Amino acid sequence: MASDEALLDTREICRLLGISRATLWRLRQRRDFPSPIRLSTRRIAWRRDAIDAWLEARDRAGLA
């Protein structure tokens, strides 16, 4: 799998962004975060390229 196709789970997202699971949940509830991919009934992950694009957009908007 290429790095741009990498999937990050909740734990990896929280570590990468330096946020708690509660903060991630709030971002998702406000729809201020990329949508995850459902891997199974109890597991989700995010595409690394979607997270990178989200971070870049926040940086351009001065929100980072």
Bin the helical content: 40-55%
Number of strands: 3
Shape: globular
Radius of gyration: 12 Å
Tell me the number of helical segments per DSSP (H or I, 4 or more residues long): 3
Which structural category fits the helices and strands?
A: alpha+beta
Average pLDDT rating: 92
Percentage beta strand: 15-25%
Distance between the termini: 29 Å
SSE order, one letter for each helix or strand: EHHEEH
Low-confidence stretches: none
Can you describe this structure?
- With 64 residues, the protein is an alpha+beta fold.
- The protein has one domain (3-60).
- 47% of the residues lie in helices and 17% in strands.
- It has helices at residues 10-17, 21-29, 48-60, and strands spanning 7-8, 37-40, 43-47.
- The chain has a three-stranded antiparallel β-sheet with strand order 1-3-2.
- The longest helix is centred in the last third of the chain and has 13 residues, at 48-60.
- It is globular.
- It starts with 6 loop residues before the first strand and ends with a helix.
- The mean pLDDT is 92.
